[in-house]
Amino acid sequence: MTLSVTRTRIKFCGLTRPADIDRAVALGVDALGFVMWPQSRRSVTPETLATLAAQVPAFVTRVGLFVDQSAEFIEQCLPHLDLIQFHGDESPAFCEQFGRPWIKALRMRDGLDLHDAATIYGGAQALLLDAYRPGVPGGTGETFDWSRIPATLAKPVILAGGLTADNIARAVNDVAPYAVDVSGGIEASPGVKEADSMAAFVRHVAQADIR
């Protein structure tokens, strides 16, 4: 058996509880996402973000998720974040202004050209690809047709949308993304992660990487 020379990175998103952060870190998760959009059932306030982010050790990336929010609000949150995730209709110029690494989430609506998007958002560290539902910026719990992702793209791909321990091995094998992003698929309820689901997700990603 030949071992893969790459490893699929893992991001757990929608963290709201200290215990879930500890569990994610113990499992070796690479990045933890904090939802700063108040309409989300997984959102946290800037004050809660400060408390939770302080618990995250070195070499685990703290990601803040924003949806068409003001530059002033984002600046307020920046001291507690390593990476910004823009999940709305933000322009490239808006994303660039904060002097911080960032990724751009794209909902896979009909007609979306990912090659064009990779050019338009050329300053992004990666493109996060999520399922499309009208009026919902993310967190739908739905998958999309992974075959729509080009085999070669100018930006690393972070795969999101409806991922669970049951389908993540197939997702890694079919897409070979740089990273995967999960929220609802490891939850007991919105914002409350479930320990066994978290562990199973990480385990199945690792098993899929051995190929």
TrEMBL record:
It catalyses: N-(5-phospho-beta-D-ribosyl)anthranilate = 1-(2-carboxyphenylamino)-1-deoxy-D-ribulose 5-phosphate. Keywords: Amino-acid biosynthesis, Aromatic amino acid biosynthesis, Isomerase, Tryptophan biosynthesis. GO terms for molecular function: phosphoribosylanthranilate isomerase activity. InterPro entries: Aldolase_TIM, PRAI_dom, RibuloseP-bd_barrel, TrpF_fam. It holds the Pfam family PRAI. Its EC number is 5.3.1.24. Pathway: Amino-acid biosynthesis; L-tryptophan biosynthesis; L-tryptophan from chorismate: step 3/5. Residues 11-203 form the N-(5'phosphoribosyl) anthranilate isomerase (PRAI) domain. It is an enzyme of class 5 (isomerase). PANTHER family: N-(5'-PHOSPHORIBOSYL)ANTHRANILATE ISOMERASE. Belongs to the TrpF family. This is N-(5'-phosphoribosyl)anthranilate isomerase. It comes from Vreelandella piezotolerans. The gene is trpF.
